[in-house]
Every structure is written in C-alpha cells, then in structure tokens.
Amino acid sequence: MVTLICRECNDDKGHAFVHVCSDCFGALEVQYDLSKVRLNREVLANRYPSMWKYKELLPIVDDSKIVDIGAGNTPLIRADKLAKKIGVKRLYLKNDTTNPTYSFKDRPSSVAISKALEFKLSTVGCASTGNLAGATAAHAAKAGIDCLVFMPVSVEQSKVQQAAIYGARVVLIRGTYDDVNRLAALAADRFGIGIVNVNLRPYYVEGSKTMAFEIVEQLGWRTPDRIVVPTASGALLSALYKGLKEAEQIGLLKESNAAMTVAQPLGCSPIVEAFRNNYSEIRTVTTPSTIVQSLAIGDPGDGYQALKVVRESGGSCGAVTDVEALKAVELLASTEGVFAEVGGAISIAVLKRLVDEGEVGRDEEVVCCVTGSGFKTIDVLPRPENITTIDAKFDQLSGLLRTS
Ligand SMILES: Cc1ncc(COP(=O)(O)O)c(C=O)c1O
Ligand SMILES: [Zn+2]
To answer: How many structural domains compose the chain?
Structure first.
C-alpha cells in the first residue's frame, strides 16, 4: 500500500528507510495505492478525533507502532473581526498552537517517530529551527527511544528548554540553520540516527497532510479559495497540497482548488523571491536576518516543490517585515483571542499585505494556518504598554482606574 517514488525520475524505490533516489539523487515521496483506500466522509465522522483517524493516508504499516501524544484535531475558528480588519469576505484560522508541544510540528513528528519504531531505530533526532526540536523530543520520550536535537544557538530559550525537558540531548550549533542541517545529515549518515527531517523526511512530511484533511472536513468537505501557510523549508505547504489532491482522488473532496500561498519573513524569503522574480531555481539566503527564527531557512529543502505547488494552484507568495509580523501577533490576539508565535502569525501579516496590494481579492474565503504558540517567542515581543504594577493599596488602584 505504501511505496517511495522519486520526484525526478519517477522510479519506485519500495518501502524502505531511504530518502533520496539511488539513481538520480532526487527527493523521494510516499505514494499510496489510492484505489485500495476505503475511506468516506461517514466513516471519518465516526472515528475518534485525532490526526490518526486518517491513517489509511499515512505511511504506517504496523498500527502497534503508532506514537500518539494527541497531535492534530485542532480548531478551525471563524475569524470575523479579523476578516473585517484585513478586508476579506471570510477568514478562518487553523489554530495549530493547541498541539501537545504547541506547534504543528507534532503532526510530522508523530509519523516520523512511529516510522522510526517500525524501522527498529534506537536513536532519533532532528535539525530544527526551534519547534521541531520539542515535537521530536516529546514523541521520542513517549516512544522510549533516545533523541538528539540540533538547533542554531540563536533560537529562543523557551524552545531550547522545552526540548531538553522531554529528555532529549540538545546540541546548539554556532551557525545558521543550514549549517545545522548539514551536521545533522552527517550524524544521520555516520551514526545511523533517524533524523526525522533528513533521512526519515519522506515519511515525516506526510504527517502535515492531516492539517489539510482537517481543514476540508471542518469546512464540510470543501476547500477554501486560499490557504496561507507560514513557510520555511516548504515542506508544510507541499504536504497540504498533496493531502488535498489525495482527498480529491479518493472522492472525499469534489475539487481541491485552493490557491496555496507562501508566507515568509522579508529577512529570509527565498521562495517569495523566486516566485516574484520568476526564477526557475531557489537562490539561497546565506545569512538570514529576521527575528522570525522558526522560519529562518536560507536553503529550503522543499523550496522547489513549494514553488511548483504555488504556481500549479494559482497561489501567491508574500513576505513581511519583522515589525509587520509582530503587529500580526498583537492583532490576532486582540481580535480573535489566539496567541501565536511570530512565525505562526506571519500568515495573517502576509494576508493583510496581499489584500492591501490587491493581490488577494476582498471577496475571497481564506484559511490562515497559525502554526505555533505565542509562548514560544515571548522573548521577541515588545513589552506591552498596558501593564502597570502597584502596591497592594486601594488608593493606588482607584487612582489608576480613575485616570484610565
Ligand atoms: C511555527 C512554524 N510555522 C511554519 C513552519 C514551516 O515549516 P516548513 O519548514 O515545513 O516550511 C515552521 C518550521 O519550522 C514553524 O516552526
Ligand atoms: Zn530518481
């Protein structure tokens, strides 16, 4: 039912612990025999609400190996107040901040660590811009296997601390994410470690499709006009699109025509640059310069694929400044009660910009993916002005309330 196909030469590489094509070095992608998948809307409606209810479209062959700490089944919230501020007809938030480790990365990690158990690996790890570290470490803890996470030394302290508390060995590297990724790839190669986003990558990315399945199911089995996606390596956006196509192919969806839209920080926006300038290749950003650490990937592994998806789906790309990203965090929290990290709220900032620029129509129905919790990037938020400290004295309190 599950096999790996080369994206470049289309060769079938079977079901194995490999991630690049042995013939052409192309990336491998999971393919299912969709003609054998028996899933319908009614069956899904009656299943326990979890990302694993879509397991026929996930690459696990032995159910007893599933590592589930409660990822997925996140809310799709109608955001009318925010829609009005931004100027679109209808807006929904896919709130993935509610995942067990507070980012969407629990979805791919759950699949990757399950796969590591199937392949009988004793150590797993990841190269992370912050969120994947916690997600991998938590799932490895549940699975009872060793975990080694690699991150740039510049990532937020909360993310470092979080990964460590689950018991993972945390290695902080003086360098960019791309340096970290190269070292992790060497560790995978020389020590046989299952690095979830390197040598387990074809399986790992499949987990993110469940966000697309949930969105269309929560909308009553239809696609919105547009899905805006915080993007770093391009894996999430590509996986969402793959999920929509598969849902269409097995008859869950009539049409899967959402315009897939990339959201990146201006200080590291290689996919946006390639789209806007019509490049055929992605040009690496050697020194990312942004406070949006979680999206600071200069050489995006699935960048080319993401670009293809944007073009094929009639989507778009947008980049915003750090100030715009910070403002979006505040706007999202103060209008809809959702507290996102800067990388998670960037979908809101980019949507606003694209509407202002006339690139996104005001008559559209849009889903913005909100991919990580605000508690993860408290460090970069400016101190709010609406905080006052007083002594425990009523005169001070009444003075305060009278003047405000
Ligand atoms: C909060 C958040 N959103 C989105 C992404 C983008 O993921 P991808 O690398 O799949 O494009 C990341 C990646 O680390 C992230 O941390
Ligand atoms: Zn190949």
So the answer is: 1
